[in-house]
Write a structure and sequence with these properties.
The complex is a heterodimer of chains A (323) and B (368). Chain A has helices at residues 12-39, 47-65, 68-92, 97-108, 113-120, 138-141, 146-151, 155-173, 175-185, 187-192, 197-223, 235-245, 250-273, 281-306. Chain A is mostly helical and 323 residues long. Mean pLDDT of chain A is 88; it is low at 1-5. Chain B has 16 helices and 4 strands. In chain B, 51% of the residues are buried. Classes of the chains: A mainly alpha (323), B mainly alpha (368). Chains A and B meet through helix 4, helix 5, helix 12 and helix 14 of A and helix 6, helix 13 and helix 15 of B.
Chain lengths: 323, 368
Amino acid sequence: MILAAGGINNSILVVVLASAVVYGTPLLYAALGELLAERSGVLNLGVEGMMLVGAVMGFWGVQRTGSLGLAIVIAAVAGGSMALIHAFLVVTLRANQIVSGLALTIFAGAGGLSSYLGNDLNIADQPAKHAFSAFLPRGWQSADVVGPIFFNQSVLVYASWVCVALVGLYLARTRPGLNVRAVGESPAAADAMGINVVRYRYVHTIVGGMFAGVGGACFSLSITPQWVDGLTSGAGWIAIALVIFAFWRPTLCLVGAYLFGAFSGIPFTFQARGILSGVPPELFQALPYLMTVIVLVLVSTAGARRRLGAPASLGTPYVREER
Amino acid sequence: MIRIERRLTQPRWLTFAVPVGSIVVAFGVMTLVLLVTHHRPGHTFVRLFDSGFSGTASLNATLVSATPLIFTGLCAAVAFRMQLFNIGGEGQLYVGAITGAAAGIALGNHSGWVSIPAMIAAGAIGGAAFALIPALLRAFLSTNEIITSLMLNYVGALVVNYLIFDSLSYWRDTSSATAKVFPQGKNLPAAANWPVAHVGSLVLPFGLLVGVVAAALIWILYSRTRFGFEVQVIGDSPRAASYAGMRTRRKILAVMALSGAIAGIGGASQDGDFRHTLDPRGLTASGYGYAGIVIAALARYNPFAVCLVAFLLGGLQNAGYTLQGADFPSGLVGVMQGLILFCALGGELLVRYRIALARRTRTSEVAA
């Protein structure tokens, strides 16, 4: 992916930034999805599971149909159908959102449905028939600094920017977007205004799952184009932390995704180049997880002071007769 | 039209019927999944039952699988009861295994009367210390404990791997040439191997008995002491608790430490009962911590029910190890656990609400 030519494009900073975009993209998709669900008041801790099912079904899709476009659609549908289970449990059956989300991760995640499907569809350890790759002109890709970071990327990266803009505009500038925020802040008031709380929560949870599915497919169709059991290795959880970090704002998700993407990319870059080779590899591998904790701490102290962003009804079921 | 009404009274039989019913429904859905994916459900379930619960050998293997699950189930139940979602049982178990193994290796030349209690204590301290990280962050900086405790699971797994595979640590066997090429943990001295109890033809691991005793102590703590009462009040209504002057912050630290300590003893039991060494591959591949969440939720946070559910899910997990193959595809255990939990969650509705089948009338439409 990164050209071996010397010069500034081979400098460690550029390489790390380029990997930040690569590893940040699945986080960005998953976080945007989680943001939509949480803005409607539904906390979905099943992101890791939805991503893995999206990854395995997306990979199956490309092996079966040979079309990357169809594969992404299949991944989105797979992620969305996982989210539907959660939506049914927490919206219709009013189950505890935290436990239901954990259940979804156990059901769908590593050692669950994604492994089952990977095993049953017989796609483990196969080379991918197609994978998303950089498509812009070579001259752009080799441009100094911006080339590797922004132009040597797949269409998934550019599509994710479009999604950030769309989600941002949707929430801030459209009537349904306003309604979602109302449902997330005060479902009783929204209900009184004639907004269908149940429908809004279902739709946004499912669309959130579709984003997570696409995020998972970023791994299996672009980053490491193959199916390996549990290949997201915690990205879904980092995406949930990312939503908190972003104060529930799409544009901040973009910044945060690349920040966390850099933490995920650094272990690979440093190991490949033998930088700090005296440091145990486990320390680098732990970096994304430790940084997630640290960033979360920083944000929660600031957030606790100013109470930024969190939808007021996040995590609580809406029961009309008990409002 | 279906209407959902709140129950004014909760019939007692429902608290038993709902978990049983949810397992039945989960098996029903599982049957569909297996049929759709061209497996033979009847055959799979028979083999599941055979290798999980029928015959002495299967039952003994199930008891082995159930032992860590009792600990991780209690770990989750203790914290969840206060609405404190410690999902770091997995990582706390690893750290308990590390500290427990250290105590076992260090005190191996003493008798079992010294080394085994020391291992239990060391495991508990290790697990509690690891759980205190998310606890302190939650109590003083109001950081979400779900994500921090989960992130630390990955960190814990990396630490265990580091100690055996990437360093010449105290735990690693460096005595022979082969051990230098193929890294493995030091074998625990004989005095650090936990005993077993024979009941008829059943073999009960010592850790299992420790787990059951721990469950009883937790039951006493939660239902018979002021501490337990306050934990339950904080769990059910944090505002009422703070008006009553209960110290939430201290409780968070205490409950998380207790929860982590239990998982840590589970880790020490892995060393002492079964593996007799610090075994990173075996520990990290098992997913005990995540299964513990399922168990706690299914047991509705009741410690004794945790033991029972741990036995049932232990059978499932044991079947998962032994039956890996066409009849029992990998991933089935997680799918089953998830389905059972989904059904249990859905069943909760039946405990709290009543589903009334009412004819759709014009008045109800107007009211809606």
